[in-house]
């Protein structure tokens, strides 16, 4: 397989970048990484070099560009025959929860932006955001109760669904969202993934601050 390059945004802030990046790490696919700091004076021109849509992530292989987080995960899943549960019913459920994340939870995404290295108080979720949180907790609980015996991920083994929800785990940690035990255990599982650890460490070391994503106040 020819070389892969994944173009991503800031590790601290770019939740859509984290998803395929983590999945590539999980599959242990070698890839080059191009990181573009978002929302600077040069971002637009830099993104234009790589991304047909002007946003990240983008996976590049030879002349081919794949410019959406879920499409990138699907491509890798097809190339490596990994990423979705083997059982057709479980696979349908995994695709459903991954798609629900990809197309939804708008209030959560705008009111609790990913900010991996921060721990914040004082962000009061709206009713819509609280409904998003409850729906995510319900998805996690249902998946863990149904598939938990097969392993510690949503569908037992790691799947693309877990990659899709990894940034949500980060948001819950950043904003101190109270979690039932089953959800807390799942967050711990995500945080223990070596790829997630690598991403979080790199996020800590990034110099850029995107003030629009710095909501709430630091934990006293
Ligand atoms: N639906 C896209 C969303 C990608 C997206 O919104 N990317 C953000 C960063 S997390 C971005 O590139 N923003 C730059 C901009 O809007 O200028 C996906 O799943 O990949």
Topology, element by element:
Blueprint (H helix, E strand, L loop, with lengths): L3 E5 L6 H13 L4 E4 L7 H8 L7 E4 L2 E3 L2 H12 L7 H16 L2 H6 L8 E2 L5 H21 L12 H15 L6 H12 L1 H12 L11 E2 L2
Parallel strand pairs: 1-2
Antiparallel strand pairs: 1-3, 3-4, 5-6
Helix pairs in contact: 1-3, 1-7, 4-7, 7-8
Describe the protein in words:
- There is one protein chain.
- The chain is of the alpha+beta class.
- It has two domains: 4-82, Glutaredoxin, CATH 3.40.30.10; 88-204, Glutathione S-transferase Yfyf (Class Pi), Chain A, domain 2 (Up-down Bundle), CATH 1.20.1050.10.
- The protein contains nine helices and six strands, in the order E-H-E-H-E-E-H-H-H-E-H-H-H-H-E.
- The strands form two sheets. It has a four-stranded mixed sheet. It has a two-stranded antiparallel ribbon with strand order 5-6.
- The protein is globular.
- It starts with a strand and ends with a strand.
- The model has no long low-confidence stretch (mean pLDDT 98).
- Glutathione (GSH) binds at residues 9, 14-17, 38, 55-57, 68-70.
Tag the structure with descriptive keywords.
2 domains; Glutaredoxin; globular; 4-stranded mixed beta sheet; two-stranded antiparallel ribbon
**Bound ions, cofactors and other small molecules, one mention each:** glutathione
Strand arrangement within the widest β-sheet reads: 2-1-3-4
CATH structural class of the largest domain = Mainly Alpha
Calculate the terminal CA-CA distance, rounded to whole Å: 50 Å
The topology string of helices and strands comes to EHEHEEHHHEHHHHE
Number of strands: 6
Radius of gyration: 17 Å
Strand content: 5-15%
Secondary-structure class:
alpha+beta
| Assembly category | single chain
Low-pLDDT regions: none
When the domains are counted, the total is 2
């Amino acid at each position: 397989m020819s070389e892969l390059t994944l173009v991503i945004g800031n590790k601290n802030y770019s939740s859509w970048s984290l998803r395929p990046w983590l999945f590539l790490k999980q599959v242990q696919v070698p890839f080059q990484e191009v990181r573009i700091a978002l929302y600077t004076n040069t971002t637009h021109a830099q993104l234009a070099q790589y991304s047909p849509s002007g946003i990240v992530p983008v996976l590049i292989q030879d002349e081919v560009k794949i410019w959406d987080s879920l499409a990138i995960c699907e491509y890798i899943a097809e190339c490596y025959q990994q990423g979705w549960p083997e059982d057709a019913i479980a696979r349908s459920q995994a695709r459903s929860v991954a798609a629900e994340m990809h197309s939804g939870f708008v209030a959560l995404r705008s009111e609790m932006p990913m900010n991996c290295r921060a721990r914040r108080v004082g962000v009061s979720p709206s009713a819509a955001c609280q409904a998003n949180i409850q729906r995510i907790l319900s998805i996690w609980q249902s998946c863990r109760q149904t598939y938990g015996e097969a392993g510690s991920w949503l569908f037992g083994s790691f799947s693309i669904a877990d990659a899709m929800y990894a940034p949500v785990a980060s948001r819950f940690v950043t904003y101190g969202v109270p979690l039932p035990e089953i959800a807390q255990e799942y967050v711990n599982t995500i945080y223990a993934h070596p790829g997630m650890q690598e991403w979080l460490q790199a996020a800590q070391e990034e110099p850029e601050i995107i003030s629009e994503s710095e909501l709430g106040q630091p934990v006293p």
